[in-house]
Amino acid sequence: MPGIIDFHAHAFPDQVAASAIPYLEEEGDVKALHDGRVASLLELMDREGVEKSVICSIATRPSQFEAIMSWSMQIRSDRVIPFPSFHPSDPDVLEHIGRIRAEGFKGIKMHPYYQQFFLDDEKLFPAYERISELGLILVMHTGFDIAFPRIRRCDPRQILNVLTRFPELKMVTTHLGAWQQWGEVEELLAGRNIYMDISYTLDQIDPQIARRIILKHPRKYILFGTDSPWSGARDTCNHLQALELGAEREELILRKNGLALLNLV
Fold first, then answer.
1. Residue 187's pLDDT band (cuts 50, 70, 90)
2. What does pTM read for this prediction?
3. Residue 166: which of 141, 194, 144 has the closest Cα?
4. N or C: which end of the chain has fewer CB within 10 A?
5. Alpha-carbon distances, residue 14 vs 53, 69, 109, 195, 213 (angstroms)
6. 2: pLDDT confidence band, cut at 50, 70 and 90?
7. DSSP H helical segments within the chain, as ranges?
8. Can you give the residue range of the structural domain that contains 233?
9. Which are the contacts of 215, defined by CB distance < 8 A and separation ≥ 6?
């Protein structure tokens, strides 16, 4: 049966998950829903009606590119869609972006806090240009991050700076445009053709603000996401339904928009 398309989930190699999940739980003062293994994610997907999940990796060092690529090739399936990652200081960044596309992956994940960059730093422009040229999707952490000081590394104005320069870049701004910067999202981003996912947001934002942003935004540009294992599809769906957006818009968010974007690559 067709199910939810989760455009923002995380998992780790089994041997990494055993240490990564406890570390991240302590770092963010949060509790994971599962132990971080792909098998556990699939079990949760089965329980909560998720058909496909985009697995977002983050290279915290340039040397991690090969390991992430190898693991991503091992785990990909009809249900698990890995988005590999490169580190911005990688000297072979353009070649590695090309390899991601050549190996058949649909997208890339970047995280300004874990990778220590500012979203609109001109040093990243060649990478954005290459990603755009190859038609890849870029899932970008945007807004503040629960585990880091509130340095403005990826705020709505920086998003506009990048997408004005690279209007064809298929960048997904996570956490409804920018985590805990939703007033600026409503003012600067809502209504523009900018992809946003709803991961790790609807249980924290004022529901009226979330509703206004989503209703103002082009209906094909809102994606479902959980940020699993930090949140789950069932709870996220409940919060989404409470916004009373209407059945047609809900169906677009839960499934159709995610599939349409994946099919562009």
1. very high
2. 0.97
3. 194
4. N
5. 18, 15, 20, 31, 38
6. confident
7. 14-28, 38-48, 65-75, 93-102, 125-133, 156-165, 182-184, 207-216, 233-242, 247-251, 257-263
8. 4-263
9. 245
- Is the omega angle on the peptide bond into residue 156 within 30 degrees of 0, that is, cis? no
Q: How many domains does the chain have?
A: 1
| CATH code of the domain containing 16 | 3.20.20.140
Q: Single out the residue of 12, 129, 19 nearest to residue 75, CA to CA.
A: 12
Q: Which residue has the tokens 């503040």?
A: 144
Question: Could you give the CA distance from residue 44 to residue 23 in angstroms, rounded to a whole number?
Answer: 21
With left for phi above 0 and alpha for psi between -120 and 50, is residue 49 left, alpha or beta? Answer: left
d(CA 54, CA 56): 6
Q: What is the pLDDT of residues 67-107, one digit of tens each?
A: 999 999 999 999 999 999 999 999 999 999 999 999 999 99
